[in-house]
């Protein structure tokens, strides 16, 4: 949730600082939204029955809808999806406030304090202009926060990987674990090392004989490819998402042409389908 709030806060503050929104209007809009969420929780039969567990899967769905809008660069849709994500943040906070656990004010204050604490190069005396150094400092401060939380009786997280949610999609989870490991010094010095590892894993996959061996080796191969992407400055999930979109557009173009001809795709030769694929590819340019 801290990422979601951080993203929304960034957009709101950016709008305010650019002169598109004055402070009073911002306060009124936010307070009105909090009031509406509170009223819905009180008066709507469906909202009243929800729990943090029952809406969890809906939050995941809304987050994916937001990422889809980002990939499509549909800013009108993105604005709406950001609103839906913000609604979930407020709804969770409303539910927990009813149990005197925490409220939206505490959520915002906790996030604000964390952002200030983790950006000493902006709010402190530390001079860090390099992006990589800023990222490493962020991880260092997070580690300090965890240690302090343990001293205060909080949950012990012994591993750098404990902060990676188990429910993340496998591709994103792999990259996050690699990033966490890299923050502890377990990493290749350059992309060449990761590429060599990928080639090594590819050879092992080719040598695998049983289905079980092939599955395991393919997992290693995919993991090493994600690592190669990361060290090459590429987010593997973004890259695959854009390729998925590209494939979908080209394939649907092929389907449209074939449908207009009153035929079925299976009746086309591979060469004919490849020609249609290249035609669709050419239209993109």
Largest sheet: none
Helix content: over 70%
Could you spell the SSE succession in H and E letters? HHHHHHHHHHHHH
Distance between the termini: 39 Å
User: What's the total helix number?
Assistant: 13
Beta-strand percent range: under 5%
Q: How would you state the average pLDDT, rounded?
A: 87
Classify the secondary structure makeup into a structural class: mainly alpha
Radius of gyration: 24 Å
Strands, count: 0
**Shape, please?**
globular
Sequence stretches where pLDDT stays below 50 over 5 or more residues: 1-8
Would you mind describing this structure in some detail?
The N terminus is likely disordered. The chain is 75% helix and 0% strand. By secondary structure, the chain is mainly α.
Could you give the topology of this structure?
Blueprint: H1 2-17, H2 23-43, H3 45-49, H4 56-72, H5 75-98, H6 104-117, H7 120-123, H8 131-151, H9 170-183, H10 191-207, H11 211-231, H12 236-260, H13 270-284
Main attributes?
13 helices, 0% strand, single chain, disordered N terminus, 285 residues, mainly alpha
In short:
The protein is mainly alpha-helical. It has helices spanning 2-17, 23-43, 45-49, 56-72, 75-98, 104-117, 120-123, 131-151, 170-183, 191-207, 211-231, 236-260, 270-284.
């Amino acid at each position: 949730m801290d990422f979601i709030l951080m993203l929304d806060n960034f957009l709101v503050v950016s709008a305010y600082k650019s002169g598109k929104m004055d402070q009073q209007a911002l306060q009124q809009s936010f307070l009105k939204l909090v009031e509406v969420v509170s009223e819905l929780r009180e008066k709507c039969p469906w909202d009243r029955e929800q729990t943090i567990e029952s809406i969890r899967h809906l939050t995941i769905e809304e987050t994916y809808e937001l990422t889809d809008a980002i990939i499509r660069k549909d800013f009108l849709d993105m604005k709406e999806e950001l609103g839906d994500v913000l609604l979930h943040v407020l709804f969770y906070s409303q539910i927990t406030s009813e149990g005197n656990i925490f409220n939206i004010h505490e959520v915002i204050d906790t996030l604000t304090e964390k952002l200030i604490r983790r950006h000493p190069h902006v709010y402190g005396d530390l001079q860090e202009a390099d992006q990589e150094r800023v990222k490493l400092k962020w991880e260092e401060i997070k580690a300090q926060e965890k240690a302090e939380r343990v001293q205060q009786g909080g949950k012990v997280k012994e591993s750098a990987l404990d902060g990676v949610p188990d429910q993340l999609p496998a591709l994103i989870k792999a990259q996050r674990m690699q990033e966490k490991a890299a923050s502890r010094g377990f990493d290749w010095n350059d992309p060449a090392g990761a590429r060599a590892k990928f080639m090594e894993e590819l050879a092992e996959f080719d040598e695998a004989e049983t289905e079980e061996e092939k599955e395991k080796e393919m997992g290693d191969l995919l993991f090493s490819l994600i690592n190669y992407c990361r060290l090459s400055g590429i987010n593997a999930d973004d890259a695959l998402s854009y390729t998925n979109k590209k494939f979908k557009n080209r394939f649907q173009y092929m389907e449209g042409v074939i449908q207009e001809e009153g035929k079925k795709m299976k009746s086309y030769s591979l060469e004919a389908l490849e020609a249609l694929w290249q035609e669709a590819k050419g239209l993109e340019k």
